[in-house]
Write a structure and sequence with these properties.
Keywords: Lyase. The chain has about 110 residues and is mainly beta. It has a domain of about 60 residues: 2,3-Dihydroxybiphenyl 1,2-Dioxygenase, domain 1 (Roll), CATH 3.10.180.10. It has 1 helix and 7 strands, in the order E-E-E-E-H-E-E-E. The strands form 2 sheets. A 4-stranded mixed sheet has the order 4-7-6-5, with no helix packed on it. A 3-stranded antiparallel sheet has the order 1-2-3, with no helix packed on it. The longest helix has 10 residues. The chain is globular. The mean pLDDT is about 75.
Length: about 110
């Protein structure tokens, strides 16, 4: 391990291959198999036409952060009028919200309940 990541348990996504890696004290990285046949845009400005639909982000390129108070964070996004896509993992332990920053970068914020 060059960077010191250790593989941690990840949810079962069926046919989708996912690896979650943890760098203790820093962050976790999720590596998700991309299915090119879905033709999902990478982001609103890299697609062939501008698409700003955060529901495309779970399988598109994005970076994920966690926050100590997910519900408060979600409320602040809604107050600012930021379009979001919410979901929970099948086990219900992880809540997720996906959205774009002003430059069109895909973001996810997740919290374990």
């Amino acid at each position: 391990m060059v960077f010191g990541f250790e593989e941690i348990e990840s949810p079962d996504f069926g046919d989708l291959q996912v690896v979650w890696l943890n760098l203790p004290g820093a962050f976790a990285m999720h590596i998700i198999q991309r299915n090119p046949s879905t033709n999902l845009p990478e982001g609103p400005y890299s697609a062939t036409s501008a698409v700003k639909d955060p529901s495309h982000l779970p399988m598109g390129h994005h970076i994920c952060f966690s926050v100590p108070n997910f519900d408060s964070f979600l409320h602040s996004l809604k107050e600012k009028g930021i379009e979001t896509f919410q979901k929970s993992l099948p086990d219900g332990k992880v809540k997720q919200v996906f959205f774009f920053d002003p430059d069109g970068n895909g973001l996810e914020v997740a919290s374990r309940s």
